[in-house]
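Example 162, ligand zinc ion.
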Amino acid sequence: MQQELGNEISHVAPHDPAENALFETLSRIEHDLNDVIGALVLLGVKRCSQCKQFFRSADPGVLFDCGQLVCYTCVPVWWPSQSMRLGVADRERTEGKLASWLRKYHRAEVVKMTPGNLTDTTDAEFQMVAKCLECAGSGKLMEGERCRFCNGLGTVRIIVPR
Ligand SMILES: [Zn+2]
Ligand SMILES: [Zn+2]
């Protein structure tokens, strides 16, 4: 009986001192690491939230910033899954930001979507569908005429050529 009680006490003992020391070491390392990452940000080095690689942030075409940072290489994988996760308003805002970032820094072109004609996009490095900025996605211009920038569809294709 005495023996059993003794065993039980040792089982519920809060922490093994060795485990405690390990835990403390790990938290200290984690803390130091966060400090180092903070210091890198001060030096103009930023980290992609997807592949965890560090980049010099002096070049604004390297990392896309939409609250989280995503490097250009990760965008084609990140955007399709991210766009599904976002609500309509957030998606349209991020989509517009991404489209203009791609146009500004990666020579992306705005291409009309023609129904029934899937234009040759096999050559594209990355492509996405975005709201037409000319008609704000309505497909119509002021006079009610069909928007010629998107063929009245309200959306255009943003294509980054290879
Ligand atoms: Zn990345
Ligand atoms: Zn339009």
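Summary: The longest strand covers residues 124-131.
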